Amino acid sequence: MPNVRYVRDVMRLGVTTCAPDTPLTEVAALMARDRASAVAVVNPNGELIGIISRTDMVRAYLKPFADLRAEDIMTTQVATIIPDIPVRAAVQIMLDRGVHQLIILHARPAPQRPVGILTMDDIVKDMANLPDSEKGE
Fold first, then answer.
1. CA distance 120 to 100
2. Are the C-beta atoms of 18 and 42 separated by less than 8 Å?
3. Considering the domain boundaries, does residue 48 fall inside one?
4. How many folded domains does the chain comprise?
5. pLDDT digit string (tens) for 90-126?
6. In the chain, where do the E strands start and end?
């Protein structure tokens, strides 16, 4: 029986963040600098209030984006998980929600501060690194 892989084994610690009033040009610079597929938008207490994906940024390109701020385009219904669930469950959440990344939070009642991110790229990299005995199980 293969070992169950957990999100904590595959996720990236840390996540690129910005404040709601961050100009989109600065959000773009953060994404480019960190090669991030998404930026978590946090309140002054560091708690998650939204997310901006690459798709959100590309949509904003068609608008006067120099005048926009993170809060103008962020998604407030953020797909989040805790690090102690199986990767397979996280993948199913991504597919069900139609998202390319999940923000990792500590289990409640801890403050809802992002501690990491799990992206489709992380899943693909994990697939490439799994021993043959664990592939497809």
1. 6
2. yes
3. yes
4. 1
5. 999 999 999 999 999 987 666 788 999 999 999 999 9
6. 12-13, 17-18, 38-42, 48-53, 80-81, 101-105, 114-119
